[in-house]
Amino acid sequence: MASALSFFTCLVLTVCIVASVDAAISCGTVTSNLVPCAGYLMKGGPVPASCCAGVSKLNSMAKTTPDRQQACKCLKTAAKSVNPSLASSLPGKCGVSIPYPISMSTNCNT
């Protein structure tokens, strides 16, 4: 689990380095809020309350279009290393509505 979490964190932080800096929200912020979700996103099971707290916080932080686009890009990249169906269902399981699906086919620029 620790090595999977380290891999997940490194992957998202790598994306931070190459991601657009136009938005106030960073991939580091996305990562730090979603670290409690790593176990669920890889193996399923119950969603930890700390994960849902991070999902809710991230959603409240991403208010502007550039912030939402950046968060979308970070989430889309991170979804490559986790179970895609678990990633796409996470916001709903946490009672959070986001304006785009977590999917490899999502166009984060629109």
Structure explained in plain terms:
The chain is built from six helices and no strands. It is globular and about 30 Å long. The protein has 110 residues and is an all-alpha fold.
Classify the secondary structure makeup into a structural class: mainly alpha
Runs in which pLDDT lies below 50 for 5 or more consecutive residues are: 9-21
The CATH architecture of the domain at 27-94 can be given as Orthogonal Bundle
User: Percentage of helical residues?
Assistant: 55-70%
DSSP strand tally: 0
Task: Provide a short characterization of the protein structure.
This is Non-specific lipid-transfer protein. This protein has 6 helices and no strands.
Keywords:
Hydrophobic Seed Protein; mainly alpha; 110 residues; signal; 62% helix; globular; transport; 0% strand
Write the layout of secondary structure elements.
Blueprint: H1 2-18, H2 27-34, H3 38-43, H4 49-61, H5 65-78, H6 84-93
Helix pairs in contact: 1-2, 1-5, 2-4
Signal peptide: 1-23
Protein name: Non-specific lipid-transfer protein
GO biological process, one term: lipid transport
